[in-house]
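thought: fold this chain, then report.
action: predict
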Amino acid sequence: MDLQAILFDVNGTLIDIETEDESEETFSILGRFLIYQGIALAAHEIRGLYLDTMKRQRVASSESFPEFDATGIWREILDGQWMEKGCPIPGERREQLPLFLAELHRGIAMRRLVPYPDVAVVLEALKSRYSLAIVTDAQSAYARTELAAVGLLSYFDHVVVSGDKGYRKPDRRLFADALGRVHALPEQAIFVGNDMYRDVFGARELGMKTVFFPTEWGEKHHEGTEPDYVIHRFAQLLDAVEFLAAR
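observation:
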């Protein structure tokens, strides 16, 4: 194998993360901030607006694997509430608040954000030999920020985020986008992920070799799908890469 690049999933693969994005507590805190934007709603009302808007986004999408847009959700909620309440819609603030609320929502919801053991050491070893890139089902409002927060962003040449595209894995276009950015063919790349369907199946559909890292998150089985290598500790990725590169 003429290995040129290694692509990675993020959450559940590189980063051990836990969030409570849909909890009443999260929306209660967001509601306190919204009061100062002229919007007084109970936590369950904000939560309902958020989830309903997300659902409408996905239903309206023509994609097979639609992704939501967190910033767009908050923009729609703000505009709708300001119009309903007859509040003057602020110009510059209207442009800034949706992204800020997407970031604030994620920050309030965060319960754990740490890299898995040995991730940085392994990436350091691989970066000197291969192009490294990210393909993640996430939002641009926080995907790169979270990688930077745990000290991993600098290891990657490119980051492909599903929220920027409107579709999510296993859509092969996400993998193809990353491969194009690192100038590698599918047969010259390995994908590393923790979800048998979204990561392993998706990458194999494009012709990539795959390494499956089963953690507490992600689907462990998908009918007819087998990875090329399985690791149970991230440090084992170096052996996996050496094995696959020699094939």
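thought: worth noting. The mean pLDDT is 95.
final: tokens above.
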